[in-house]
Amino acid sequence: MTETLLWVLPLVPTVTALLMLTTRDRRILSAIDVCGSAILLALTLVLAREVAKGGPSALGLLRIDDLGLVFLLLLVVLTLAVSIYTVGWLKQAVAVGNMRAESLRSYFALVHLFVATMVVTVLADNLGVLWIAMEGTTITSAVLIGYHGHQHGLEAAWKYIIVTTIGISFGLFGTVLVSAAAAAHGAVGADAMSWSAIMKIAPMLNPGIVRIGFIFVMVGYGTKAGLAPMHLWLPDAHSQAPTPVSALLSGVLIKCALLGIIRFQTIAAAACGPAFPAEVLLVFGLTSVVVATPFILAQNDLKRLLGYHSVEHVGIVALGLGFGGTIGTYGALLHVVNHGVTKALAFFAAGKAIARYGTRDMRVIRGLLAVAPIGATLLMLAALSLAGVPPFSIFVSELMILRAGIGQGHWVAIAIFLAMVVVIFAGLLHHVGAMAFGEPTETATREPEAWSPLLGMMLLAAIMILLGLTIPASIDGLLRRATEIVVG
Amino acid sequence: MSAETVRTIIDDLGALLLFTMILILAAGQIYRAIYAVAAQSLLIAIAAAVLATATGNTDLWVIAGITLTVKTIVLPWVLHRVVRRMNVRREVEPVIPVAATLALAVMVVVMSFHLSATLGPVNQAITGNALPVGIALTLLGVLVMATGKTALNQMVGLFASENGIFFTAMAVTQGMPLIIEIGVILDVILAVLVMAIMVLRVRSTVDADIAGLDRLRG
After folding, report:
1. Given CB 3.0 to 4.6 Å as the disulfide criterion, which of A112, A233, A357, B200 pairs with A16?
2. Cα distance from B183 to chain A (closest Cα, Å)?
């Protein structure tokens, strides 16, 4: 059963993508979109139950364990929310000419291919497959980023494809080094690249080679994850992509790259002791938090603001992994989920506001609460959560990461982290407060809010608030088992 | 073939690979860079074939065949077409002067040999200088991508660094597992096609090179 699901899961979005090519009608396309995503979610829930009962299972180059499941669940939930949001978003985008009605099917097909490649990155046991799927996400999403076809979109897409391809070349190089270290201890053929096979012999691997391999991988997948200073592509890509794609990029894609890093972190921790990968993660994490801050404060472009904010939060996850221990790792994994859900919600709400005012410039967006009360409330909720206000979910995971840092005595890192979080808190609330309140700008349309984007947003808001108030036992158990895999 | 002969051949091929890399770095015209990277891919294919004969590993024959058809013939042909469609024959304008690039390249090569010395205990499939050459090719390819001012230069750099990774993999583990190598090559083909489309798209809307656009800031 579980084995069957392992090969069926990547097939679902692939088949959905192919089905898209059979029609040009927007309504039918949207229906296929929502159905495909719903089936993917349903099958993943079945898989989650099987794994909770029967433990990890593998099929050839693919494997599912609790760690992968955390990321898979995030991926499929966000995919469904994106599909629901897209229904109303697309109607509006076609009406104002942002999307051409005759090329919609290729857009939908690409989105689902993008999802399929991300599913494979999460399910990959073989580190080579992980890399191939990761490069696959680059190719499919690059086309989506440039989808609007104007010059700026293509510039962002080019920058994205070049920077991440350079980065990910380092990732492959690191993978080859680690597999060479494994091959020296009798792993042959595909086993030399299989994560589960390498983990069995990891303590015996030559620490020198693994150390260099891990640094290469960290730079490689770190580029894709948007860790500073390799984040240069991220704000451009996130701001230029169509809004649903921005939500997928920020909510899931950069998290998939983090999963790649975590996989190598466990190998490196076993081979050279946990202190070495932790140190590397702390350096990249702190750099990201510090680098993102000034850009968040001085930003005028709403989507770029959210992009830089993702750099900060990926940095926070890296810090959590770096502080390590059970609390730090649990906090980091919880933060992956919280940030994914909240950031997707923020992009959705921002996308609706941008459509209403016809600009991404935050100085023009004023008085949103008066023209779109529900959308504005959701945007404020998302911003409050992103800023780390209790009782929202991000507050909980940030607190855990802080506790882990204090427990380990990383005082300097904690001080820098806290200072930056406070500054960003003020900056973000200032930006969003100015947008929500005040007299509405003349140019804003006052048409009623469409139901489907609101439904997609409320789904995410519900998860965000729930995870802030309490972590359900099933999710808690999943996160605990995933933490065990990382901490060992 | 004796192990000694194989080592000599691979070392000679490694020297030629570095030479093609210098040709790419110093190429004044984009055509020359494309021919140089095609020649480099040919050398990689020959290296794979030599190793295949020496070790009897049939997977390496397949890899040699794919490298020959895809990287030596098809992809350079695609690049060639893009250049013709773009109708640019002007010089490649380097961001930093050629002399400085070459000096940087020498440093990278020296560093690669140093790095591979610290990797001493790797159980190499081929002894000799294959590993440092692989590392140098990878890093120099990245250098070309990072300093290349035109889109096509960056694409040539991508090939070169991919060639370097393949060569490294051959040096340390007789190549990656076949299915992975095929997947990687497939990714490269798709990436190049997508890049080619984007380059031509920008060329047809505005009279500019996609790599030269710099409107997104802050």
Report:
1. A112
2. 6
